[in-house]
Design brief:
binds NADP nicotinamide-adenine-dinucleotide phosphate, single chain, 21% strand, 16 strands, six-stranded mixed β-sheet, eight-stranded mixed β-sheet, alpha/beta
Length: 440
């Protein structure tokens, strides 16, 4: 008899958790569930297509998935196909590694207008996520002369969105950007992208490496108003200070750029809080912003208003966790209530589900290891009966056709065969086709 753990979510935090469990407790079994038919979570459908170096971590996860003690159960959704109560009943422990997949709302008038997109919709679209691949954003409103794109937020997700919209076709050939996205982005020659922060350069959430990349877009020049840059930014500790100094140095460089030196411009704008989105015939026309100053770390509106002509507004302002039947979650919570990863008896959370949407992929490794060590300490000495027969029977009875790791490898093979011009893969992006290949 051996313990079996259910991990829900096959992104980095789920895979790191699975690897640590199986490595530390030989013989322990893991069932790794995912609502998608494909593994690797944000590595596949969140990390930007031009960050292939980051995406390469899938090779590490693939080794974990091929361990004999592990099963991948794709196209199985918690809450739809299996309940949390069932998982808790059958498995020795359950780990939530399902991220924080609900986009935060701005809560301003006009948010419903056609042309207002969430970062998840847009990055899901350009990453070939099957829920978003057919929801082509209408970029026509940002064609030259009729306005630009406003990206609200200054975190690394905003930076990703800006880069993917700001880069041209030849910069993306060695990526897995789907052809439909490349065609539409290049057919809509966006002239002006605004990346808007409600606070100042000292509070911006982007990191120096990501900010610097905005300076190497072939046809989009990054600019910033030098008057918005302080003499210096002070941070609480030396490591932070180094990062802040670098950010200021990069921004100073951008403030010297000639806005007309390239075909398009990225305007990095500070001290501006979104106030209202104005539309015409149901679609975005203008973004009204309130000027701010920062006091005690908070954005305080000064009373001054300014307006941008934009055809698209992208909200890149963070995420919430998804409410789950059988688990009390406060409205708008950015993580499941937990203490060091423990959510309840035999129920754990890792990654964004535990910490909220923060950190880079590597952050999840140590975090998952720490939580799994606690899980292992608390495992009852006697395992429950093998959960796999009961779970498999429940799924069969409900007509759920599980995508196994071997099935996924069929999809992957097709993606590699279809890849052209040095692209690492040509993604299969529609549910029907993913399922058909998996079952073929
Ligand atoms: P984030 O880093 O928390 O940034 C969110 C941004 O949205 C902040 O600038 C925030 O401003 C702004 N914001 C929030 N509510 C707002 C509102 N109502 N109005 C205007 N602005 C608002 O989140 P993220 O960009 O989604 O990234 C999530 C995590 O993934 C981060 O840890 C990030 O570093 C990581 N990530 C990393 C990479 C990479 O390594 N390349 C790529 C993508 C994501 P305030 O600060 O004023 O609240």
């Amino acid at each position: 008899m051996t313990h079996t753990i259910a991990i829900v979510g096959s992104g980095p935090s789920g895979f790191y958790a699975a690897e640590h469990l199986m490595k530390t407790r030989p013989g322990l079994k893991v069932d790794l569930f995912d609502r998608l038919a494909t593994p690797y979570g944000l590595v596949r459908i969140g990390v930007a297509p031009d960050h292939q170096g980051t995406k390469n971590v899938w090779r590490v996860f693939q080794r974990t998935a091929k361990r004999p003690e592990m099963r991948f159960l794709g196209d199985v959704e918690l809450g739809r196909d299996l309940s949390l109560a069932e998982l808790r009943q059958h498995y020795d422990a359950v780990v939530l590694a399902i991220g924080a997949p609900i986009d935060r709302a701005l809560g301003i008038p006009g948010e419903h207008l056609h042309g207002v997109l969430t970062s998840q919709e847009l990055s899901g679209w350009y990453n070939g996520h099957p829920d978003f691949s057919a929801r082509h954003p209408d970029l026509a409103g940002c064609l030259a002369g009729s306005g630009g794109v406003a990206v609200i937020g200054q975190g690394n997700v905003a930076v990703d969105v800006v880069r993917v919209l700001g880069r041209v076709a030849h910069e993306m050939t060695k990526t897995d950007l789907p052809a439909y996205a490349s065609e539409r982005i290049n057919a809509a020659p966006i002239k002006d992208i605004y990346m808007i922060g409600r606070r100042g350069p000292g509070e911006a959430a982007f990191t120096p490496v990501e900010l610097r990349e905005l300076g190497d877009m072939a046809e989009t020049v990054a600019v910033v108003d030098g008057a918005q840059l302080p003499e210096s930014i002070s941070a609480n500790d030396p490591k932070d200070q180094k990062l802040k100094d670098k950010i200021l140095e990069i921004l100073r460089g951008y403030s010297q750029n000639d806005p007309m030196s390239k075909r398009a411009r990225l305007h990095i704008v500070f001290y501006s809080a979104p106030h209202e989105i104005l539309g015409e015939d149901g679609r975005v026309k203008k973004l009204v912003l309130k000027k701010t100053k920062v006091e005690g770390g908070k954005a305080i509106e000064t009373g001054e208003t300014w307006t941008l002509d934009v055809g698209v507004v992208v909200k890149a302002i963070g995420y919430h966790v998804k409410p789950l039947a059988g688990l009390e979650v406060p409205k708008g919570a950015t993580s499941y209530p937990n203490q060091g990863g423990k959510v309840g008896d035999g129920l754990w959370a890792v990654g964004w589900s535990k910490r909220g949407p923060s950190g880079v992929i590597a952050t999840n490794r140590q975090d998952s290891i720490d939580v799994m060590n606690k899980l292992l300490e608390e495992l009852p000495a006697t395992p429950k009966a093998d959960p796999r027969p009961a779970i498999d029977a429940a799924l069969t009875e409900r007509g759920v056709k599980v995508v196994t790791f071997t099935d996924w490898e069929k999809i992957e093979k097709v993606e590699h065969e279809r890849a052209k011009d040095g692209a690492p893969r040509c993604k299969v992006t529609e549910w029907d086709e993913l399922r058909a290949i998996a079952r073929g």
